[in-house]
Amino acid sequence: MSGRQRRRLPETWRGRLPDAATFYRQHVDGLCRPNGEGWAKGKCPFHDDSNASLSVHIASARGGWKCFAGCGQGDMVSFRMRRTGEDFRDAAWALIEWKP
């Protein structure tokens, strides 16, 4: 178990998440400009996606996401967990320490 796994997340960890737009632009291919509500579409990295079936809420601090092809939905932490296989704590730490 690494030292990071044993450390407790700070109470303010959600406020330390990276900017959703910057994060998702690095992880979602073909991300378009957001609509008026802050949702942008792109190709889902969780399946072979020839159409833009993933929507991400880049105007939200939590960075919500939803795949309309059935891969799931969640926030930026669950997106990181799904991409990397990390548990919640490791994914949250990686995000608050993430540098673009």
SS class: alpha+beta
**pLDDT below 50 for ≥5 consecutive residues: which ranges?**
none
* Helicity range: 25-40%
In order across it, which strands form the biggest sheet?
1-2-3-4
* CATH homologous superfamily label: Zinc finger, CHC2-typedomain
For the record, the CATH class is Alpha Beta
Q: Examine the secondary-structure arrangement and name the CATH architecture.
A: Alpha-Beta Complex
Rg over CA atoms, rounded to whole Å, is 14 Å
Number of domains: 1
Query: How can the largest sheet be summarized?
Result: 4 strands, antiparallel
Organism: Luteimonas kalidii
Protein name: CHC2 zinc finger domain-containing protein
InterPro entries: DNA_primase_Znf_CHC2, Znf_CHC2
Domain Zinc finger CHC2-type: 40-96
Q: Can you walk me through this structure?
A:
- The protein is α+β, with helices and mostly antiparallel strands and 100 residues long.
- The chain has a single domain, classed as Zinc finger, CHC2-typedomain (DNA Primase, Chain A), CATH 3.90.580.
- Helix content is 30%, strand content 14%.
- The chain contains 4 helices and 4 strands; from the N terminus they run ααββββαα.
- It has a 4-stranded antiparallel β-sheet with strand order 1-2-3-4, with helices on one face.
- α3 packs across α4.
- It is globular, with a radius of gyration of 14 Å.
